[in-house]
Specification:
Blueprint (H helix, E strand, L loop, with lengths): L6 H13 L22 H21 L5 H26 L6 H29 L2
């Protein structure tokens, strides 16, 4: 007599393998359209959108942006934010200084713009030196 394999063990193993795949985690792409789902669940849709936004922010700060449109927008944002600092310095050189509270605002915005421009250059070098 031969032993018959237990069918419940094989289905249990398949369920365990499914749980460890990336589509079994809420927020990951493919979770809301998994088997037996229509993909219209608003909670799963928001979780997936949040996951993708977090992934994009992570690639932005790590310096791994490969999309040229996002990189262009990053450079434009950096230039826009650094412009008030450049204008304030040029006004100071023309003997027309700004008040201290305006300098504080301009310095904060300028430092953020400088950090974004440094990140832009880092991403740009990552594309061309790859």
């Amino acid at each position: 007599m031969s032993k018959k394999s237990n069918a419940s063990k094989s289905t249990k193993k398949l369920k365990d393998e499914k749980q460890h795949s990336s589509s079994a985690l809420p927020g990951w792409p493919g979770y809301r359209t998994r088997a037996g789902r229509s993909g219209y669940d608003p909670i799963d849709t928001r979780a997936e959108a949040g996951h993708m936004a977090g992934t994009m922010l992570q690639t932005l700060f790590v310096g791994q942006i490969r999309n040229r449109v996002h990189l262009f927008l990053l450079g434009v944002l950096g230039l826009i934010l650094i412009t008030p600092l450049v204008l304030a310095i040029s006004e100071t050189l023309n003997t027309n200084p700004l008040p201290w509270n305006a300098w504080l605002f301009v310095l904060v915005v300028g430092i953020v713009g400088l950090a974004i421009l440094i990140n832009f250059i880092k991403n740009l070098l990552g594309i061309f030196l790859r």
